[in-house]
Design brief:
The complex is a heterodimer of chains A (549) and B (89).
Chain A lengths: L1 H20 L1 H5 L2 H6 L6 H12 L2 H13 L5 H26 L7 H5 L2 H39 L3 H49 L3 H12 L1 H6 L13 H12 L14 H6 L4 H23 L5 H4 L13 H9 L4 H37 L5 H23 L3 H14 L3 H9 L5 H27 L12 H22 L5 H11 L6 H19 L7 H7 L1
Helix pairs in contact in A: 1-9, 1-17, 4-9, 4-14, 4-17, 6-12, 6-14, 8-9, 8-16, 8-17, 8-18, 8-19, 8-21, 9-17, 12-22, 17-18, 19-21, 21-22, 23-24, 24-25
Chain B lengths: L2 H31 L3 H34 L3 E2 L10 E2 L2
Antiparallel strand pairs in B: 1-2
Helix pairs in contact in B: 1-2
Classes of the chains: A mainly alpha (549), B mainly alpha (89).
Chain lengths: 549, 89
């Protein structure tokens, strides 16, 4: 036990050292503190993004799913993020990075104009920094407690005392640069720790073939189902239709959004890379590393029901599977490494959320609405205070302020409705601010009507409403379809955004898709400019060739 | 299909290639973990081939996006690495 604690202490000291090492770099200016001077290699940002996405809650959540499904649990995360991340890489990363924004939320006032633009930027900044970031940070800290309690016998407050001060200190001192470097160290430790659990678990059963034989012998047809790699047509937890719904529901619109509720740190990862191509690398490395990390925590849990059969019982707390495996399989020393690995996952998510949430609260709320022209030093101080505010709210979530978490989950469901609009804002010049507002807020209304309406009627005693309650995957398709009809109608029935705004956006981003009238206008303007300079109306301009060719 | 939308379609095809290769890698590793060695190895070979094809097609595609931003006609090589026809956005 003393060896385990020594390993954990050494890890925490290393994190503090990284914070101290980068503190001068971070203190120079805002770009250094929040975007690491836009000098981060794509691969490092990719590992860092994986670190932000994968935490102790992945071990408990995916581990629990693996225990009640089987090997095919891999399609749970592959369909959710696989194609989506590659679409982001190939079709959007370059364009986002070209814009060279400070936060991705600035996009709204670049692409749209007037009240819709400022309303969207304000709403998403508020939602990100006051609801999503505190909620996700709080649940991550709670997941740390769920692992530390059974494995190390630590209470909630003790767990927080181990995790929070160091996480906060190194991000407070070193900013984003310290975050990405520490994320790399954390993910190496995470891989070693979780890899040990995976290897020792399969060795415990006598190797891969013996493990498969045990599953077949103990569970018969259910064991054969657990060994499938494709989700079955009928399954209580994860049927094939659910995999298809994840694929469509998560991929459509992915990459075009500035700050999705569940993955808001993505914009910071793109904008801090050295070049547009490095932003593409970021996405690809994220996909490879994240899936590897999730695979490492979920695969061993397929074997967990052999040791604790009650995990597959309806109503059982299946999320204990990974913690139980750790305690059973790991000797002292390796246990310390595995715990340090899980702490690393927690701390990477916490530090990422604090840094990004602080950046948004500072730039898109404080600087945009309160003090627009302060000094860098002033904003640095306020930015750090914003991180304190987010941390305090996250701690409130840990200590039973569940409303924030409930609201965040509810808004995550609401935001699914608007997803197709995220592509339209890049690929259709006619998509305007009003259409964006219709997608964001009208989509939420449609969600309430389709998803919540029938359930409320049922509660009120209208039994006929049970025919309107659909499986969640059909609800997803229906809500997305109706919302798309709504924003297309709004776009076509209202005026386009002003021409100068569209022209400027096109010049900066060069987006793909339907921008014909804007390209034609820019071509004509370019030709006219050169003609007036040369006195020769027949001379084509470079700008004219650029946009018309 | 216009050149603009063709670029989008080709981008989707390349993204699908990358996602497919990644899925084969995860499925292959999962098969190996439960003793399906032949299937797991075949999936990993498929993942390597897919990753190679993705890498070969991504570079020319990004070159095409750069050329488009710089104002020249877009030369987009097909995903198999062959010479494609110019795309005029």
């Amino acid at each position: 036990m003393a060896l385990d604690f020594a390993i954990i202490l050494a890890y925490l000291a290393l994190m503090l050292g990284i914070g101290l090492y980068y503190r001068r770099f971070a203190a120079k200016n805002l770009e250094n503190f929040f975007l690491a001077g836009r000098s981060v290699p794509g691969w490092l940002n990719g590992v860092s993004y994986s670190a932000a996405l994968v935490s102790a809650d992945a071990a408990s959540g995916y581990g629990g799913l693996a225990a009640v499904t089987g090997v095919f649990v891999c399609w749970w995360y592959l369909t959710r993020f696989g194609l989506a991340l590659f679409v982001g890489a190939v079709l959007f990363a370059v364009f986002w990075r070209r814009l060279a924004l400070f936060t991705s939320l600035e996009f709204y006032e670049l692409r749209f104009t007037g009240r819709p633009a400022s309303l969207l930027r304000f709403w998403i900044a508020f939602r990100t920094s006051f609801i999503a970031m505190p909620a996700w940070t709080g649940t991550t800290l709670l997941a740390a407690y769920k692992i530390m309690e059974p494995v190390m016998g630590m209470g909630k407050t003790t767990t927080l005392l181990w995790v929070v001060p160091v996480s906060f200190l190194y991000v407070f001192l070193s900013g984003y640069k310290g975050v990405v470097v520490s994320n790399l160290v954390q993910m190496v430790i995470f891989t070693l720790g979780t890899g040990s659990v995976a290897v020792l678990t399969v060795a415990h059963f006598g190797g891969p073939s013996a493990l498969a034989a045990r599953l077949l012998a103990e569970y018969g047809p259910a064991g054969a189902e657990m060994l499938r790699v494709v989700p079955p047509l009928r399954h209580d937890v994860f049927p094939l239709a659910a995999a298809f719904a994840w694929l469509v529901g998560q991929t459509v619109g992915y990459g075009g959004d500035a700050a999705p509720v569940g993955g808001a740190v993505e914009g910071q990862r793109i904008l801090s890379t050295r070049s547009p191509r490095e932003a593409v690398t970021m996405y690809v490395v994220t996909a490879l590393t994240m899936f590897t990390f999730v695979m490492l925590v979920s695969l061993p849990c397929v074997a967990a029901p052999l040791l604790w059969p009650h995990l597959r019982d309806p109503g059982a707390d299946r999320e204990l599977a990974y913690g139980l495996l750790m305690k059973e399989m790991l000797p002292h020393g390796l246990m310390g490494l595995a715990v340090a690995g899980l702490l690393a996952g927690v701390m990477s998510t916490v530090s990422d959320n604090l840094n990004f949430g602080g950046q948004v609260m500072l730039n898109d709320l404080y600087r945009r609405w309160v003090v627009p022209s302060g000094s860098d030093r002033h904003y640095l101080v306020v930015g750090k205070l914003c991180m304190v505010v987010i941390l305090a709210m996250a701690l409130a979530v840990v200590y039973s302020v569940h409303i924030l978490f409930d609201v965040a989950v509810f808004m995550l469901q609401l935001s699914a409705a608007e997803l197709p609009a995220n592509w339209a804002q890049w690929w259709w010049w006619r998509f305007n601010g009003k259409a964006r507002v219709a997608a964001s807020f009208g989509g939420a209304g449609i969600f309430c009507l389709v998803v919540l309406g029938p359930k409320l009627l049922l509660r009120a005693g209208a039994t006929w409403a049970s025919a309107l309650v659909l499986p969640w995957w059909w609800e997803t398709f229906l809500v997305m379809g109706l919302t798309t009809v709504l924003w297309v109608a709004v776009a076509l029935l209202t005026k386009p955004d002003p021409e100068p705004l569209l022209d400027e956006f096109y010049r900066r981003a060069r987006p793909l898709g339907s921008w014909g009238p804007v390209r034609a206008r820019l071509a004509a303007a370019g030709a006219a400019t050169v003609a007036s300079v040369n006195g020769d109306a027949g001379q084509p301009a470079r700008e004219g060739r650029e946009v018309a060719s | 299909m216009s050149g603009e939308w063709r670029l989008v379609a080709v981008g989707f095809a390349i993204a699908s290639l990358g996602a497919g290769a990644t899925a084969l890698y995860i499925v292959g590793m999962s098969w190996l973990y439960v003793g399906r060695f032949a299937l797991g190895s075949a999936a990993l070979v498929g993942a390597a081939v897919g990753a190679f094809a993705f890498r070969r097609s991504l570079g020319p595609y990004l070159d095409a996006l750069d050329a488009r931003a710089d104002g020249g006609p877009v030369q987009l090589e097909s995903p198999d690495g062959g010479n494609g026809e110019p795309i005029r956005p």
